[in-house]
Automatic annotation (TrEMBL):
Species the sequence originates in: Xylaria multiplex
Superkingdom, natural source: Eukaryota
Keywords in alphabetical order: Cytoplasm, Proteasome, Repeat
InterPro entries: ARM-like, ARM-type_fold, Ecm29_N, HEAT_ECM29
One example GO MF annotation: molecular adaptor activity
Matches recorded under Pfam families: ARM_ECM29_C, ECM29_N, HEAT_ECM29
SUPFAM superfamilies given in the database record: ARM repeat
Higher taxonomy: Eukaryota, Fungi, Dikarya, Ascomycota, Pezizomycotina
Protein name: Proteasome component ECM29
GO cellular component: cytoplasm; nucleus; proteasome complex
Length: 1816
């Protein structure tokens, strides 16, 4: 059986071999045999029988001839089908051999067979070979454009429908990108070393696969070898196509993106940008990390950039750490494999990835104990590797700068990573100290900024409640606070203070000490340090820095012990005290400025603690000071608190202040004195004041201070302490000594005198309050009275004020009353005089004058108190407002005395002993209280402005300071009425006073009074009219509000009456009064919220109708009204959210109505602002039903006549726009966003919005739509067609009018330049950007709506910018949405048929470009229709303008859509060739560019002769001269090109001749025109290469001759020379006829010159040269070969008669004679007869006019011609040379003479050669 099988197989193989042998001599038949029998034969190659295999091997020789075509497709099928390794290998060998013998189309058809099931190959050896075959076929395919229908169908058509196959191919293509050229060419032994030195991401097995087991497979310059760069370029294009999905090609494309070949990397980068791979997928992230660990640096950079976009990449912590370690390991060390720019790029990508992790990895911080700290250590090592603290110097400056930026980023990333990492305490402290050291030592200011940022990022890590951690941080911060700034070391004080403020609690004493140190340098310190120090001491800032914590104040007692502990002790390290011998170790010489800061801060902490202030506002310090000095209850609380405090702590504080005054009076004296003066009034005398009083004398050292406040504080403090000082008498004696020295001290002693006077008065008055007046006090009082009286009457203002203070203090204590009535009267008069001048101290003293009991004594029926009050009442005319408050306080003190709060607040000691009885006797004066109230209430009814103002303020002050008196309580209703009347006053301060008074009345009144007050207020608020009661002096308008034109203005009622009388129109009174009433209404409303009036309304039950009105009034243009209404709103609305929700509809309805119905501009303006505020922050559904109405009214008032209303409307529109945009940004697919878009966009795009005739409305609408489009997303799809068409139309309407004005007045040339600028601006404008943004969301549904609208816009567009925009939109659609555009492509192209002919060049070019883009994806029918239209337009054009437009369209196709151009090149290339010879220069240049881009060679002309000839024929048949001439030029160029392509001796094909001859004949028959010489010059070329045309054809031969002679006979002077030359060439070519005589006869007239040569014109000279050339070249060539002497004789005869022509055209003569003699010499025919005469004639001709041969070039040409003459003579052309001895001698002698006379060495050498030739 086995033998039978072996025999059968052998028989089959032998049979096939015999069949092959039978047809082996015929390659075609052999190929056919192989198609059917090769694969069955190969099946037997796997036979187990050796005999069969040997027989098979003998068959292989039959396939060796290259002409034999193998059945490659069948072999591929067999390869995939068979399981025999031998058969597979043979198949691969035959396939590889057969591929090269197939044409390209068949090779392309093999690729689907190769790729189908390619992933099923398991044998690596055969798989490598098969993949190599795939690469060879890959080079042959044409990858379609991305997004085209062919591209979308490529996956199925090319055989990659199976995802496994696609992944297999993509995987190996990715590895192909990693294959470097050096590795591809390396031997097997070198590969390992190369991979170790520079890893490529491949292993040896991969390399062996890609090299197909052959190291030489990629060797260049070897036939049939692949080119690695070309394979990569084609592979990346294939990967980018639709054959692969994004998830299949993602990693391979990354491999390509890292390629050094820009052709590969650019395509890969683009694919990566467009890829839609889910970077949040765990599998994708894992694959990226795996690839990162294997790939080279360039590819790792790409991967890191991708990982930096994935939040999931932050999760695998160990992978992240390993990846970062690996990358830094590659770039560090002495032998780092990656250095230079690549290392920098890798570092940049790494830092970007780490920054991404820091920003997005915070979610797992609690569990992150490894990644974050590990990465921080790696980055720290990276910085240390660069050099630390200063980086190591670099030679490359540019690289050094890059490394510096990376170093800065590394610092910043460390901080960001540390912030989201769980670092232990030790690691945190170590890192913090390292960063601080870096901060102070790094030399680069740019890097320091990032270090500070890193430190800022770490602050949250140190916000701990652990006191041990606080202690370590305190030590560290104090160290850097104390670090001095010196060379190479910068300060870190700012950061240290920030850490103290942010990381340590406010009650941390050492943190506050750090802040005090920050302020210790004063103005010499950096501003940011000072500001941070001030914030650290501010408790309000503490609530902002630690909002999550309840404010805890530092324990002021502990703080005092720390700051002012003067006991001897060991100073701890963290205190950083350097001067341990001073009283206060913390304050060394360089820290003295910190002492007053510490005093000031401790004082505030003391008072805040005493008042239990845990909630502070931004103005807490001023509020605290007001409470301390003006609030009796607060003062009482402080006194009670001090009773609970250990006196020791207070004494330590007060002693420190005294020490500061004593030791450094020039530093912080005011702060120390303020501390003493503020605290001592509250301390108990027995325990504190008496103890510290022994230091009273130290105060006297400050009497001479130049600071008035210090002197005042000294006097106050002295008065408190001196009565308890045992040495008080000595101190008083010193004061009296100073005062006694002079009544008028010198200026240098004035300050000391003033302070001494006040100190003595303060001492006596406080001693009276204490009940500690000394026995000799009366003497001191009398002395003080005399001094005070003297100072009061003096001229020194400072002493005068001191005297006033002294007298006021004495009178308040009921001492120091003047003993003489004259003195009293003088004092009152003096005080009154000073008061009228606005001296507040004198007013204060007048009020105190009425306090003593002596003031009630009657003298001449009048008391001193009564006089004082009368004087105070007389001060109503004073204009300064603040003075009236002083008067009011003085009046309150005068009538209520010690019952007045103002008097009680002025006493800074606690009265004791019999002083209480004295105070008890100095109570109110009921009669004066009642009388004063009556006066003020009545005066408030007056109309005199100054009196109203004064009375209102005084009444307010009396109630303010005396509200507790029953006399006041009983008159509150009357006071209320008075204040209500004052609300309508013009003076704003009067309004404020009235509102404060009303609030005070409301607070003190009973329930009935409160009800009446609320009723009155609401009535005034909601009423529309305000009643005015006026008399002649009533002020109705502000000065200047109603100017009369004469420098005056109407202000009062009397002015109105006078004006009406002058004009004679009494109705003016009513008109002005109506205006005044309206103003009064608003004035009254503006006063509602002042100083507590809103509190009244907050407690009342209000009608809900008040809310809409009140809400609108809050936005009134008047600042006062707005502020008042806002205060009322805040008072009556406890929860604004609830109130607005409850009354939203009512408020909105009222506002919308007010905008449209408001007659007053202020109503419209307020309504706009109110609506903007009302909808801000509200959910859209709440105001959805009002949305369109809001837009409508907003745009309506945007055109308001009032500018401020327009501004408010614009702000409202901007708010609406911002709300819409914000909603879209947050979630553009939400129902709210969709509803907003659906409501607003139709309105905005209507005639009320974007099409409005109002410029402001249009601009606002455009801006809104622009913002909406940027963020609208898919929600915009229904509106995209409308938006696009509207905005395209707007492009032409927003151009400034100035541009159009200028455009109409410039020249046409300038217009073209301006058009280019305008078109550029149109496509770069925000409007067009909006259009482009809309197109991003275009899909099939959008295109169905957009296409017809866009076509309509294209057809109807008038403005240039709109047309440009339309064309750009079409281009954008082609580039981005080819798929969706396909159904409408033909429609768009058809619409552009007429648009490309637009009058404006920029528009036509733009439309031509768009059409070219559209042709990319257009069908063949559309392309043919468009190109046919272009050609028809060209030939139908009446002028050059239309031809220019067509040329632009053709060039656009050539440049923009080269593939489409190639597809239509049989039509477009011939047309471009024809049109490049257009007579219009522009058309010619443009079409020449198109021709050069796609052809540019003579062979291309040869290929398209038929098409070109058709176009030429069409051009010749037209009646347009321009086209006829272009056709003629085309024929000429075509003949010339064919001649070049054919070669010198080649002949045109018969078919080509038949195409060319008719059109050439027709073209030559045209009348002579400019440029026709090109045509006649080409004519001899056709005769030369087209002998098939005339040889053997008598008629055609005769016709060609006729044409040549006809053209030469034309009378056009410019054309004549070229025609004559063409005739001569024709005669020379026609060897079958001798035309010499005819030519000579035709040109002889041009050789016979009558005049001198210099008289000839240029045209005549050219004609002569052409004629001379003709007689020298038109001889018959065969006759020259047979009878050269005869031909030369004939020519010599002609030339002899044209010697003058020779003189004129010597260059022509010598050049053509040289050719003539060479031709004669080549004949090799020796003349037997004696031609001595002929030789002599030619020699004489050559030397005739010897003197005229001047130029060296002419002499050179003559010498060469003589050399040719000698050669012809020596060859016997002129007969035997031996018989011409005389001629020889003559020639030799002449040549010797010429050589002697010749100056040129080159010419001499040629003459020597002539002589040598003659001798030889």
């Amino acid at each position: 059986m086995a033998a039978s099988t072996e025999g059968t197989e052998l028989k089959l193989v032998s049979s096939i071999r015999y069949k092959f042998a039978a047809v082996s001599n015929d390659e075609k038949k052999l190929s056919e045999a192989l198609q059917s029998m090769l694969t069955p034969l190969l099946e037997k190659a796997g036979s187990q029988h050796k005999v069969t295999f040997k027989a098979f091997m003998s068959v292989k020789n039959f396939i060796q001839p290259l002409g034999v075509v193998l059945p490659v497709a069948a072999l591929l099928e067999q390869y995939k089908r068979t399981t025999s390794p031998i058969v597979k290998q043979l198949d691969l060998a035959f396939i590889r051999e057969g591929i090269t013998r197939l044409d390209q189309s068949k090779r392309r058809g093999l690729l689907p067979i190769v790729l189908h099931d390619i992933s099923n190959e398991t044998n690596s050896a055969s798989a490598a070979g098969f993949f190599n075959i795939f690469l060879r076929l890959l080079l042959e395919i044409k990858v379609p454009g991305r997004g085209s229908p062919e591209d979308l169908a490529l996956r199925g058509s090319i055989g990659l429908s199976n995802s496994s196959d696609a992944k297999y191919v993509a995987n190996w293509l990715g590895k192909l990108f990693l294959l470097r050229q050096d590795i591809a060419l390396a031997s097997d032994d070198e590969i390992t070393a190369k991979l170790d030195a520079s890893p490529s991401g491949l292993v040896k097995e991969d390399i062996a696969f890609l090299r197909n087991k052959d190291p030489k497979s990629w060797q260049p310059n070897i036939p049939n070898n692949l080119s690695l760069p070309e394979c990569k370029a084609k592979a990346v294009a294939f990967l980018a196509s639709g054959a692969f999905k994004d998830d299949e090609r993602y990693l391979p494309i990354i491999c390509a993106a890292g390629s050094a070949d820009s052709r590969v990397s650019s395509v890969a980068d683009d694919v990566l940008k467009r890829a839609s791979v889910d970077l949040e997928s765990e599998n994708v992230v894992q694959s990226l990390f795996v690839a990162h660990s294997a790939f080279p640096a360039a590819h790792r950079i790409q991967i890191l950039r991708l990982l930096s976009k994935s939040a999931a990449a932050c999760t695998p912590k160990q992978r992240v750490v390993d990846a970062v370690k690996e990358d830094f390991a590659l770039t560090t060390g002495e032998r780092a494999p990656i250095v230079g720019l690549e290392a920098l790029r890798l570092h940049k990508a790494l830092l970007g990835f780490l920054s991404w992790i820091a920003q997005n990895g915070s979610g797992s911080r609690a569990a992150d104990t490894h990644m974050g700290p590990g990465l921080v250590v790696i980055l720290k090592d990276y910085i240390l590797g660069q050099g630390w603290p200063a980086p190591n110097p670099r030679n490359n400056q540019s690289q050094s700068q890059d490394e510096q930026r990376l170093r800065a980023n590394a610092y910043e990333t460390i901080g960001t990573l540390a912030r989201v990492s769980s670092l232990d305490h030790k690691a945190k402290d170590s890192l913090l100290k390292w960063l601080f050291d870096s901060l102070v030592s790094d030399p680069s200011p740019d890097v320091v900024v990032y270090i500070e940022s890193s430190l800022s990022s770490m602050m949250n890590l140190f916000r701990s409640t652990d006191t041990a951690q606080h202690r370590d941080l305190e030590v560290l911060l104090l160290e850097y606070m104390n670090l001095p700034e010196r060379q190479n070391i910068r300060t870190a004080r700012h950061v240290a203070v920030r850490f103290a403020n942010n990381c340590l609690p406010y009650n941390n004493i050492r943190a506050r000490w750090i802040c005090i140190l920050a302020l210790s340098a004063g103005s010499s310190e950096r501003r940011d340090v000072l500001e941070e120090g001030q914030r650290g001491l501010d408790p309000w800032w503490a609530t902002k820095l630690h909002p999550e914590e309840t404010l805890k104040l530092p324990n002021w007692e502990e703080l005092g012990k720390f700051l002012f502990n003067s006991s001897a002790r060991q100073v701890e390290e963290y205190e950083m005290a350097v001067d341990q011998t001073s009283r206060y170790a913390l304050y060394s010489d360089d820290r003295l400025q910190a002492f007053p800061v510490a005093i000031h801060f401790l004082k505030h902490m003391f008072f805040l603690t005493a008042l239990n202030e845990n909630t502070v506002e931004i103005d807490w310090e001023s509020r605290l000071d007001r409470r301390i000095h003006n609030d009796l209850s607060a003062r009482h609380s402080i006194r009670n608190y001090i009773k609970t405090v250990e006196p020791k702590s207070i004494l330590q504080f007060l002693n420190a202040a005294f020490d500061g005054l004593r030791d450094h009076p020039n530093i912080g004296a005011e702060d120390c004195m303020t501390c003493l003066a503020d605290i001592l009034p509250f301390t108990p005398a027995e325990t504190v004041i008496s103890t510290i009083s022994d230091r009273t004398h130290e105060l006297l050292l400050l009497r001479g201070s130049n600071n008035p406040k210090v002197r005042q504080l000294v006097s106050k403090t002295f008065g408190i302490l001196a009565p308890w000082d045992d040495r008080a008498s000595l101190n008083v004696a010193r004061l009296r000594e100073t005062l006694s020295s002079t009544d008028e001290p010198l200026p240098s002693l004035s300050a000391q005198y003033q302070c001494s006077l006040m100190c003595l008065a303060s001492y006596l008055s406080r001693a009276k309050h204490y009940g500690r007046l000394s026995p000799d006090a009366s003497d001191h009082i009398q002395f003080l009275n005399r001094c005070s009286f003297s100072g009061l009457m003096g001229t020194d203002t400072g002493i005068q004020n001191a005297a006033l203070d002294s007298l006021a203090q004495l009178w308040t204590a009921d001492i120091g009353w003047p003993s003489e009535e004259s003195d009293l009267n003088a004092i009152i008069d003096r005080l009154t005089y000073l008061a009228l001048q606005g001296n507040e101290k004198s007013i204060y003293a007048l009020g105190r004058l009425a306090i003593p009991r002596s003031s009630e004594l009657l003298q001449n029926g009048e008391s001193a108190a009564g006089k004082a009050l009368e004087k105070l009442f007389s001060l109503s005319e004073i204009k300064r407002t603040e003075v009236h408050f002083a008067i009011g306080e003085a009046i309150a003190a005068a009538i209520a005395r010690w019952d007045s709060e103002s008097v009680q607040l002025s006493v800074d000691v606690q009265p004791a002993g019999h002083a209480d009885d004295i105070i008890g006797s100095l109570r109110k004066k009921p009669e004066q209280v009642s009388a004063t109230l009556d006066k003020f209430i009545n005066d408030c009814k007056e109309t005199k402005p100054s009196l109203i103002k004064a009375s209102g303020i005084w009444l307010f002050c009396v109630i303010q300071y005396c509200s507790s008196l029953p006399d006041i309580q009983s008159r509150l209703r009357d006071c209320q009425v008075a204040f209500m009347r004052l609300l309508t006053a013009r003076d704003e301060l009067v309004q404020e006073t009235a509102s404060r008074g009303l609030a005070l009345v409301y607070e003190k009144g009973d329930a009935s009074l409160k009800g009446d007050l609320v009723k009155d207020l609401v009535g005034s608020f909601t009423g529309t009219k305000t009643q005015l009661k006026v008399d002649g002096d009533t002020e109705l308008f502000d000065a200047g509000a109603l100017p009369t034109g004469e420098g005056k203005s109407i202000t009062s009622y009397k002015d109105i009456i006078n004006l009406a009388n002058e004009v004679g129109d009494q109705s003016l009174i009513y008109k002005f009064m109506a205006l005044a009433t309206n103003a009064a209404t608003w004035t009254a409303r503006s006063a509602f919220g002042r100083f507590g009036l809103s509190t009244i309304l907050s407690d009342a039950d209000l009608d809900p109708k008040i809310y809409p009105k009140l809400y609108r009034y809050r936005f009134d243009p008047n600042h006062n009204v707005r502020r008042s209404m806002d205060d009322i709103w805040k008072a009556i609305v406890k929860d604004q959210t609830i109130t607005i929700d409850a009354h939203f509809d009512a408020i909105m309805t009222d506002l919308l109505k007010s905008i449209l119905d408001g007659r007053e501009w202020r109503v419209r303006e307020a309504s706009c602002a109110a609506i903007a505020d009302l909808i801000s922050g509200q959910p859209y559904l709440k105001y959805e039903k009002y949305h369109v109405d809001i837009w409508q009214v907003a745009l309506r008032v945007l055109d308001d006549q009032k500018g401020s209303v327009r501004a408010a409307a614009l702000k409202l529109c901007m708010g609406l726009s911002k709300t819409l945009v914000t909603q879209l940004k947050e979630n553009n697919s939400s129902s709210s966003a969709q509803a907003m878009i659906a409501q607003v966009l139709p309105f905005l795009l209507s005639d009320k919005g974007i099409e409005s005739s109002v410029k402001e409305v249009k601009l606002m609408t455009i801006t809104t739509v622009l913002d909406v489009v940027k963020t609208g997303g898919d929600t915009l799809k229904p509106f995209i067609p409308t938006i696009v068409t509207h905005f395209l139309g707007l492009l032409s309407t927003i151009e400034p009018d100035q541009v159009n004005y200028y455009y109409q007045r410039v020249s046409e040339e300038d217009r073209e330049g301006l058009d280019k600028i305008r078109s550029t601006l149109a496509t770069r404008s925000p409007l067009f950007e909006c259009v482009v943004s809309c197109l991003r969301f275009a899909d099939e549904a959008v295109m169905s709506q957009l296409a017809p609208q866009l076509i309509t816009t294209i057809k109807s567009a008038l403005g240039m910018q709109t047309k440009i925009g339309c064309s750009e939109v079409l281009s954008t659609l082609v580039l981005r949405h080819t798929i969706f555009l396909a159904p409408y492509n033909a429609m768009f192209v058809k619409s552009l048929h007429t648009q490309i002919l637009d009058r404006n060049n920029e528009v036509s070019k733009s439309y031509a470009k768009s059409a070219a883009y559209l042709l990319r994806s257009a069908s063949s029918e559309t392309r043919d229709r468009y190109t046919t239209r272009l050609i028809d337009l060209y030939f139908a054009a009446e002028d050059e303008v239309r031809r220019q437009k067509v040329a632009d369209a053709v060039l656009a196709i050539a440049k923009v859509s080269p593939d489409a151009f190639t597809d239509m090149e049989t039509r477009l290339l011939p047309f471009a060739y024809f049109a490049k010879f257009d007579t219009d220069e522009y058309v010619s240049e443009v079409c020449d560019a198109a021709w050069d881009q796609h052809a540019g060679g003579n062979h291309t002309v040869k290929r398209y002769i038929n098409e070109i000839s058709i176009l030429v024929s069409k051009g010749l048949e037209t009646s347009k001269w321009a086209l006829q001439h272009a056709a003629a030029f085309t024929v000429a160029s075509m003949v010339t090109a064919l001649s070049s392509a054919t070669g010198k001796g080649g002949q045109f094909s018969e078919s080509d001749i038949q195409q060319i001859w008719p059109i050439l004949d027709k073209a030559l028959s045209l009348k002579t025109f400019k440029g026709k010489e090109r045509l006649v010059t080409a004519y001899p070329l056709l005769i030369k290469h087209g002998k098939k045309l005339w040889e053997g054809n008598v008629a055609t031969s005769a016709q060609t001759k006729k044409i040549a002679i006809r053209e030469a006979k034309r009378n056009n002077d410019e054309y004549k020379p070229f025609a004559v030359e063409a005739l001569a060439e024709y005669a020379a070519i026609r060897e079958d006829i001798d035309m010499y005589a005819e030519v000579v006869a035709l040109v002889s007239e041009y050789l016979a010159l009558d005049g001198e040569a210099y008289k000839l014109t240029e045209l005549e000279r050219k004609a002569t040269e052409a004629a001379l050339k003709a007689v020298l070249t038109a001889y018959n060539r065969p006759r020259m070969q047979s009878a050269p002497a005869s031909v030369l004789s004939n020519i010599a005869t002609v030339v002899d008669g044209a010697k003058r022509s020779i003189s004129m055209a010597q260059d022509t003569f010598f050049t053509n004679t040289l050719d003539l003699l060479d031709q004669a010499a080549e004949s090799r025919i020796t003349t037997n007869i004696d031609e001595d005469l002929l030789a002599t004639r030619w020699f004489r001709l050559l030397l005739q006019d010897e003197a005229g041969v001047v130029l060296e070039s002419q002499r050179m040409a003559r010498a060469k011609t003589l050399l040719a003459f000698a050669g012809a003579w020596k060859k016997g052309v002129f007969g035997a040379i031996d018989t011409q001895g005389s001629l020889y001698r003559e020639i030799q002698q002449k040549l010797m003479q010429m050589k002697v006379e010749e100056r040129s060495l080159d010419v001499q050498m040629l003459l020597d050669q002539v002589l040598e030739k003659l001798k030889g």
